[in-house]
Amino acid sequence: MSDLGLFGSVYDQLRSYSDRIDRLLITIASPGARERSGAEAELAELLRRFAQPETETSSHALRLVTHVLRQEFSSSDYPNGFTTLAEELEKGVLDDNGTLVLERIAATLDRKCSEMRSRMREGI
């Protein structure tokens, strides 16, 4: 596979998770959204998956996202902080600090997507 194909594949995988998290954050932040509890549950499940150690049974995309997040977050935030945040989401008690962590996750994935797009452009 060419470098362009490799970076394109990595970009697509990161972008799918990034877009999903962005959509869920918007739904959670929307006042009175009927879909809020469903979005909180879906985001909590994603956080739990991100907090689990990489295994052979994990999808390639999930292992990639987990690796990116492990590099970004300190050992005190990752993975235990992700599990705690998932529990807060499920209980509906997400505070401002939790929201900041979720936004940081989204920003981290967005930044990595931008890096992959840049590498793709360099390869053209």
Question: Care to describe what's here?
Answer:
77% of the residues lie in helices and 0% in strands. With 124 residues, it is mainly alpha-helical. It has one domain (3-123). Helix 1 (3-29) packs across helix 2 (36-51), helix 1 crosses helix 3 and helix 1 packs antiparallel against helix 5. The longest helix has 28 residues, at 96-123. 23% of the residues are buried. The model has no long low-confidence stretch (mean pLDDT 85).
Describe the protein's topology.
Elements: H1 3-29, H2 36-51, H3 60-72, H4 80-91, H5 96-123
Helix pairs in contact: 1-2, 1-3, 1-5, 2-4, 3-5
Low-confidence stretches: none
Question: How much helicity do the residues have?
Answer: over 70%
**Helix/strand structural class:** mainly alpha
Radius of gyration, taken over Cα atoms and rounded to an integer in Å: 15 Å
Report the total helices: 5
Round the mean pLDDT to the nearest integer and report it. 85
| Topology order in helix (H) and strand (E) letters | HHHHH
Count of individual beta strands = 0
Question: How far is it from the N-terminal to the C-terminal residue, by CA?
Answer: 14 Å
- Biggest beta sheet summary: none
- Shape category: globular
Task: Please tag this protein with its features.
single chain; 124 residues
